[in-house]
Design brief:
alpha+beta, 5-stranded mixed beta sheet, 39% helix
């Protein structure tokens, strides 16, 4: 009986003491559980329970397990579960990546500016020279990488050269560059040497180019003169006095030279040997202020040219 009483007394003291120790160990929650509770509350207020309900429920379940473990006085396991719950809450409903629009393509670079077209010019210091004489040929260009002249080859972009052609010559120049090519030309007339000449003081009526019948005697002298040179070229140059405009006199002088040619051809001279031109009122041989002087200036000059 004594032993049974002692056992009863031990149990009555030990059991309350054990319970008191257990309650004291778990009556104060670890801060991790408090943090987990706060994280769950904040997620609920943020609408996570609606936005991703399955993941939110899983986090709540892990948090509840943490509390259960704490109640069973397994503090370390409860803290681990609480930290797991916090991690799950932080991962709830991750923000979906927003597809960024593709960057706009860079604007195409502007096309390069077109290269300027070249320019080129060529001339002589005199439109004509007598046979055996020379002239200065001059040229200029811009925006050209290559310049050449027919018969001379490649030349400087700008320059000059002394030329002495044996006959009438056309000089052609070509300039080329990134902007294309351009051509130009000039003609230098070579006047043949005059072997002989005869001046016909034909008494053309004023403002007329018709040969009068009383002039046929002088024209016979012209026929005899050209027959002395059967193989030579002939040049007939007409002249007028100064009455009238220079433009009109130029045309009239040309008609007077043509009238003499027609007369020579009609009298057996080969027309292919004859060229005609006019000098108008230029090169007078007498005073245009007098009637006599004007009559002398109304003339045609026959020139026998070298081959």
């Amino acid at each position: 009986m004594v032993k049974l009483g002692r056992l009863r007394t031990f149990l009555l003291v030990a059991i309350p003491l054990f319970l008191l120790v257990g309650l004291t160990a778990c009556s104060v929650y670890p801060p991790e559980l408090t943090a987990a509770d706060q994280a769950i509350d904040a997620a609920r207020k943020a609408g996570k329970a609606t936005e991703c309900p399955a993941e939110f429920a899983a986090a709540e379940k892990v948090n509840a397990e943490a509390h259960s473990l704490c109640n069973l006085c397994t503090r370390d396991q409860a803290i681990a579960k609480a930290n797991q719950a916090i991690t799950m809450v932080n991962a709830l409903c991750p923000a979906k990546a927003v597809a960024r629009p593709a960057p706009a393509p860079a604007p195409a670079p502007p096309p390069p500016a077109a290269a300027p077209a070249p320019t080129v010019a060529i001339s002589t210091d005199s439109p004509s020279v007598k046979e055996g004489q020379c002239a200065n040929l001059m040229w200029s260009s811009s925006n050209a990488s290559s310049v050449s002249i027919d018969g001379m080859g490649r030349v400087d972009p700008n320059g000059s050269r002394r030329v002495c052609p044996a006959s009438t010559t056309t000089y052609r120049i070509s300039a080329s560059g990134d902007g294309g090519s351009r051509d130009a030309s000039t003609t230098l007339t070579v006047v043949p040497k005059v072997l002989d000449r005869l001046t016909l003081h034909i008494n053309f009526d004023f403002n007329k180019s018709t040969i009068r019948s009383d002039e046929h005697g002088d024209l016979q002298k012209a026929i005899d003169f050209v027959k002395k040179y059967p193989n030579s070229k002939l040049s007939l140059v007409g002249y007028t006095d100064s009455i009238g405009t220079p433009q009109y006199n130029q045309k009239l002088s040309e008609r007077r030279a043509a009238a003499v040619k027609d007369y020579l051809v009609a009298n057996g001279v080969d027309g292919s040997r004859i060229e005609t031109s006019g000098r108008g009122e230029n090169d007078p041989i007498a005073d245009n202020k007098t009637a006599k002087g004007r009559a002398e200036n109304r003339r045609v000059e026959i020139q026998v040219l070298s081959d």
